[in-house]
Design goal:
Blueprint lengths: L5 E6 L7 H15 L5 E6 L17 E5 L16 H6 L2 E6 L2 H4 L5 H13 L3 E6 L9 H13 L11 E5 L15 H19 L8 E5 L7 H8 L3 E4 L6 H12 L2
Parallel strand pairs: 1-2, 1-8, 2-3, 3-4, 4-5, 5-6, 6-7, 7-8
Helix pairs in contact: 1-8, 5-6, 6-7, 7-8
The structure holds 2-phosphoglycolic acid.
The site of 2-phosphoglycolic acid has 13 residues, from strand 8.
Length: 256
C-alpha cells in the first residue's frame, strides 16, 4: 500500500466546549495538512461548529465531516441533522453507526438507512463496525460480518466508492495505545472485511472501499498500524483534539 493515498479522520466527539478552542484545534490541523503529501485529513467536529470552518474545495488534503446524520431528508425530527444540511455547510464525509451511537440505541436498520442516505446525497459514509469483545470461538467474526452486511444492505453498488469502513473494536476504544490492536491483527481484520465485502458485492466492485482502523491510536502506533496493517488510514478520537499529538499522527501516516 506504499505511496497510496491515506485518510485520517478526526472524530472530536462531544468536544471542545466552545468555538474558540474549536478554531484553535482546527487551525493547527489546517497548518499540518499543508505539509501532507498523500494523506487527507477529515475533521469531524460537533455539528454546531461546522460553519466555523471554511474549507477550500480544491484543497485535497483537508475536508470536513459530520459525526452523524439522520436517515430522512427533512421533517419533524427534533434534534436531528439532515444530509443536505451537512452538505450545505461544507461537509463531504459523515460518520455513520459509531459504537457510541449504537449504545444510545441506533440499530442496524437505522444505520443502513443513514449509510444509503449519505452516499446517495453525495457524501462519503464512514461506516463504523466493531465487536464489543473477543471470544475463544471466534464468534466475533460472525458478528462483524452481520454488521457489515447489514450496514451496507441499502447501498447500491455504484456508490461503493463513497463507502469507507472503519473497523473499531469497542474493547480498544479510548484506552492507552498499548491496548490498541496490534498491526498484524489489524491486517487480518482488513482481509476479513474485504472478504465479506467481496462476497456481498463482488470483487470488482469493492476496490474503492477504503478501510480504516480506530481505537486508541496515537503517534506511537499510528504509522505501524497503517503500514503493517496494510490499511487506508485511521479514525482518531481523543488524540485528534491534541494539536501536537495529532500532528505527529498525520506525519507518521504520511510517511508510510
Ligand atoms: P479513540 O476513539 O481514538 O479515543 O480511542 C476512537 C473512536 O471512537 O472513534
Amino acid at each position: 500500500v506504499k505511496n497510496q493515498k491515506k485518510l485520517v479522520v478526526a472524530n472530536w466527539k462531544m468536544n471542545p466546549a466552545g468555538p474558540g478552542e474549536a478554531r484553535k484545534i482546527f487551525s493547527a490541523v489546517r497548518r499540518v495538512s499543508g505539509l501532507l503529501k498523500r494523506t487527507k485529513v477529515v475533521v469531524c467536529p460537533p455539528a454546531v461548529y461546522s460553519s466555523l470552518f471554511k474549507i477550500d474545495r480544491k484543497n485535497k488534503k483537508l475536508a470536513l465531516g459530520v459525526q452523524n446524520i439522520f436517515g430522512q431528508l427533512s421533517g419533524p425530527f427534533t434534534g436531528e441533522i439532515g444530509v443536505q444540511m451537512a452538505k450545505n455547510v461544507g461537509a463531504e464525509f459523515a460518520i455513520v453507526g459509531h459504537s457510541e451511537r449504537r449504545v444510545l440505541g441506533e440499530t442496524d436498520a437505522v444505520i443502513a438507512q443513514k449509510a444509503a442516505m449519505a452516499v446517495e446525497w453525495g457524501l462519503n459514509a464512514i461506516v463504523c463496525i466493531g465487536e464489543k469483545s473477543r471470544d475463544q470461538n471466534g464468534d466475533y467474526f460472525g458478528f462483524l460480518k452481520t454488521e457489515i452486511q447489514s450496514a451496507l444492505s441499502l447501498v447500491k453498488k455504484k456508490f461503493l466508492g463513497q463507502v469507507i469502513v472503519a473497523y473499531e473494536p469497542i474493547w480498544a476504544i479510548g484506552k492507552s495505545f498499548k491496548d490498541a490492536m496490534q498491526p498484524r491483527e489489524v491486517h487480518e481484520m482488513a482481509i476479513f472485511i474485504k472478504k465479506v465485502l467481496s462476497d456481498s458485492f463482488g470483487k470488482e466492485w469493492i476496490h474503492g472501499v477504503a478501510i480504516l482502523y480506530g481505537g486508541s491510536v496515537n503517534y506511537e502506533n499510528a504509522g505501524l498500524i497503517v503500514k503493517d496493517g496494510q490499511i487506508d488510514g485511521l479514525l482518531v478520537g481523543r488524540e485528534s483534539l491534541s494539536p501536537e499529538g495529532f500532528k505527529e499522527i498525520l506525519k507518521a501516516v504520511d510517511a508510510v
